[in-house]
Design goal:
Radius of gyration of chain B: 24 Å
Structural class of chain B: mainly alpha
Number of helices of chain B: 4
Strand content of chain B: under 5%
Oligomer: heterodimer
Largest interface: A-B, 47 and 34 residues
Helix content of chain A: 55-70%
Number of helices of chain A: 5
Number of strands of chain A: 0
Structural class of chain A: mainly alpha
Shape of chain A: elongated
Order of helices and strands of chain B: HHHH
Radius of gyration of chain A: 19 Å
Largest sheet of chain B: none
Number of strands of chain B: 0
Order of helices and strands of chain A: HHHHH
């Protein structure tokens, strides 16, 4: 693509990534969550594919990292759910809630601005799903890029 | 014949929609115990201010686990469909 598109992509890329991570991490306070934030991060991959040629995309995005992140996200999700069994709760029990440690602050009833340190295992599950979705969507997009005919210079 | 049949179906569907639509009461959902319980107890039971995330990730965690597994399977199937046999030069085919 032209230099204009490349410069625009370079400028927009960090903002898209930061916005995606914000949606993932603040999933228990504001609208959004793991799926939506992961999809927003995956749009950064689309932007890269639109702006640069296939060789440059191949050099900058590693397929192995995306594959590993997808598997890691799913394992983190199931592992967090399984750890509730060691705390004496049911599968998917909220074992971090009100513990006072990470994400363990009790939340007040009613309308309040919210604290990032609340939610129990919900932020952990959000981050796990976010990692999985960005890996999965990136892999899908890269697979379709590989099936594309001709050079998208 | 086919066009006439299509027109008849369209007219019947439009009439059904237009006749039944105004009778529905908008903004007055049927009473259930579930939504009241979640709105009253969701904040202290899940610890999340966003009640939708509380429902999706705490009350219905199994559902979300199924969704994540579906996504994993989708990527597996897409990689199977989009792989290229024989050629090794393109890195983006699925091994």
């Amino acid at each position: 693509m032209s230099n204009l598109v490349r410069s625009g992509a370079n400028i927009l890329m960090p903002f898209i990534l930061v916005f995606g991570f914000y949606i993932v991490v603040h999933g228990h306070l504001t609208p959004g969550g793991g799926f939506q934030g992961g999809a927003v991060i995956a749009t950064a991959v689309v932007l890269l594919m639109v702006a640069y040629s296939r060789a440059e995309v191949r050099a900058s995005i590693s397929k192995k990292v995306l594959k590993n992140s997808e598997t890691l996200g799913l394992l983190l999700f199931i592992g967090t759910a399984l750890l509730a069994l060691t705390a004496g709760l049911a599968f998917f029990g909220n074992w971090l809630l009100d513990a006072g440690t990470l994400f363990g602050t009790p939340v007040a009833f009613g309308i309040n601005p919210g604290d990032l340190n609340t939610g129990g295992i919900i932020p952990v599950l959000n981050i796990a799903v976010g990692i999985e979705v960005l890996g999965a969507m990136g892999l899908l997009l890269l697979a379709m890029l590989g099936g594309m005919k001709g050079d998208a210079e | 014949m086919k066009n006439a049949l299509r027109a008849v179906i369209l007219v019947v569907c439009a009439a059904a929609f237009l006749l039944a639509g105004p009778g529905l009461s908008f903004g007055e959902p049927a009473y259930t115990d579930m939504d009241d319980y979640m709105l009253l107890h969701g904040q202290e039971e899940t610890g999340s201010n966003n009640i939708v995330t509380g429902v999706v990730f705490d009350y219905r965690g199994f559902d979300t686990l199924g969704e994540a597994t579906v996504l994993f399977t989708v990527v597996l199937g897409a990689g199977l469909v989009f792989r290229r046999l024989g050629k090794k030069e393109d890195e983006y085919e699925y091994e």
